Amino acid sequence: MHVHKPSHSVQKPNVVALSSQEAQWVRLATATNNLANANTPGFKSHLVKLINTTQKGKEGRVVHFVSANKSLRNVADGSYRQTGNPLDVSISGNGYFLVQTSKGNKLTRNGQFALNNDGELVTATGSYKVLDQGNSPILIPKGVKSIVIHPHGGVYADAVLVGKIGVFSVHDQQEQLRSLGDNLLDPGKQQLAISAKYYIKQFGLEDSNVSSVKESILMIEILRQFEHAQKIIDEQEQSSKKVLNVSSKNV
């Protein structure tokens, strides 16, 4: 990692090394979370952006730090995986399913659905109600023999339209769209708009777009950089001890 230092600045190497370690911990936590969700349908991987920052220290000295600036979401589609389950659907393109939770309506790309005891379409994990374009649950009559879901969300029970799965988009998928866990996303104060560019495919799921190989390689790189920074800190401490020993002998 290359850190630029103006000729007029004076800074301790261990200060920069420590800030680098803190940034690497953030990167490591993000990569670990990506790997943990490699098999989560619809999960989007994250990448931490690093920046060089400066602060004024004592006596006007300019101190440089390496810091984790922000976590960027990779919004690229995951691959389609066929399951054969008529209640499994995937989204291709821009958009999210809207589900009803105890903490308000949230977004998700996980199209692994089921039916609750009332015949409402819900998420297979968490049992959150899947909402239509008007923010209402979708009810499947009992006893139907076939459920067909069309590319733009129309749900047909024995050839009768019973609802249309809502697929919504948000303007900011990075700063304001927050991950909540359980594959849910909070749009914050953003206005939800019915997406115009999406395609729903039945009988399968959108896999996570996490590359396990890339994340594993990244983790090795992060650990190497962390160890390199630790070596700098250790060398600086040893140097400081030598200076103290020399000073004490001269007293």
Report on the structure:
The chain has two domains: 13-76 and 210-249; 80-206, no CATH class. The protein contains two helices and 18 strands. It has helices at 13-36, 212-249; strands at residues 46-56, 62-73, 80-82, 89-93, 96-101, 104-108, 113-115, 121-123, 129-130, 147-149, 154-157, 160-164, 167-169, 178-181, 184-186, 193-194, 198-202, 204-206. Strands 5, 6, 9, 13 and 16 form a five-stranded antiparallel β-sheet that branches. Strands 10-11-12 form a three-stranded antiparallel β-sheet, with no helix packed on it. A hairpin with a 4-residue loop joins strand 10 (147-149) and strand 11 (154-157). Helix 1 packs antiparallel against helix 2 (212-249). It is elongated. It starts with 12 loop residues before the first helix and ends with a helix. Mean pLDDT is 86; it is low at 1-11.
Topology at a glance:
Layout: H1 13-36, E1 46-56, E2 62-73, E3 80-82, E4 89-93, E5 96-101, E6 104-108, E7 113-115, E8 121-123, E9 129-130, E10 147-149, E11 154-157, E12 160-164, E13 167-169, E14 178-181, E15 184-186, E16 193-194, E17 198-202, E18 204-206, H2 212-249
Antiparallel strand pairs: 1-2, 3-18, 4-17, 5-6, 5-9, 5-13, 7-8, 10-11, 11-12, 13-16, 14-15
